[in-house]
# Entry
Amino acid sequence: MAALGELLKEMSYECISGTTEQDITDVIYDSRKVTEGCLFVCIPGAKADGHKFAADAVRAGAKALLTEHEVELPEGADVTVIRVADVRYAMAFVSAAYFGHPARQLKVIGITGTKGKTTTTYLVKSILEQAGRKVGLIGTIEIIVGDTHIHAENTTPQSYLVQKYFRMMADAGCDTVVMEVSSQGLMLHRTQGFVFDFGIFTNLEPDHIGENEHKDFDDYLHCKSLLFRQCRVGIVNADDAHWKEVTKGCTCQLETYGIDTEADLRAEDIAFLNEGGSLGMAFKTKGLAELSVKISSPGKFNVYNALTAIAICRHFGVQEEKVQKALRAAKVKGRTEMVKVSDDFTLMIDYAHNAMALKSLLETLRAYEPHRLVCLFGCGGNRAKSRRYEMGEVSGQMADLTIITSDNPRTEEPQAIIDDIRTGIAKTDGKYVEICDRKEAIAYAIDHGEPGDIIVLAGKGHEDYQEINGVKYPMDERVLIQEILEERA
# Structure
């Protein structure tokens, strides 16, 4: 229960009808979930406009409406109508007030960029917890509040949910939250209503451009830049060609990190480690922090992720040995995640599910000079066919053996998707096999593993389901591997 006038305190609005001198039981933005006495937020969405459901919301018990334009109401309706310039922007402030401004009780870290957000959030959480802080997390895979893990629907949830999770974290004794901040989240004002203590930029590549996302690359870049008008300290990757554009007009204190530039924090003496089939990296940092680091994840991009985490965590005064220990131990589900099946070869799971990500991953693994590089993947149904051709071509060019299998076929025939992938591979002279059933395909990869091989299961990553004809069936590659090993035993 909250006073409507208090919820509107930090924003500009016009009261079209009714009064703000009343109590609100909840803030609701889905007309199917309206409760008696709530404030209903009329969000204009890509598929449906909440303004069209205003009358239904009032009939269901809503006592106030947050709108951008005129709405039709039931005759004689006793309802307060609030008009604002941007409903999504206003909802963020209303939600923050409704939950008692929980961000003010937390140190809030926001990480944006095309790649590296997920891994870096977990690294930061790991390091800060080594230092004794209690850290909540909001990201692509899940929301973590203490021992509670909540499945994530979006990388950055609706502003109401962001504030709800902040409140849960503060109430659970968290003192810090680290969150992924997507360009969509910034564009749709999901992170308004509070100020980030730290805003981080990892990198920028063309992605999320198209219908219902960003109209072009400039729009994508602009949305990323919004974080640096909403944070106190900005920490940016100075090796990325776009960092100066992203931080143009920023209102925060800025510092940089990198490998190839004269950044404030630098990684030097980078080495690739292959220790008993487990791949990792070693490096030293110079500048704002000086320490020797080993990580249990392969590739230069994971050096960047670790360097980003160090750049953030040094602001929290974490002892050097605790940073080193946390980085060595940290693992992220479905991101170059190694699963031990043999002393002879390496098996890993990764979320790479487009050509750009797959190329980057395979290039990284090539640096370890494997006996063979084996790539197992499929492609999602009801998505652009071009992705299948491109991924097939990349794997055909870069892997010694490709195992084509099923991913999330959705409403398409799995074999039709495999046929499209084969079309891409046919542009190369790469060797491949087709095994539609994913468990059988993984079993084939394990049974035919040779000493020195690196085998990557790409595309599913952290996902624990397979979607077929609108139904999500349980399917976790870690479980499949365990079952295969038990069957072989």
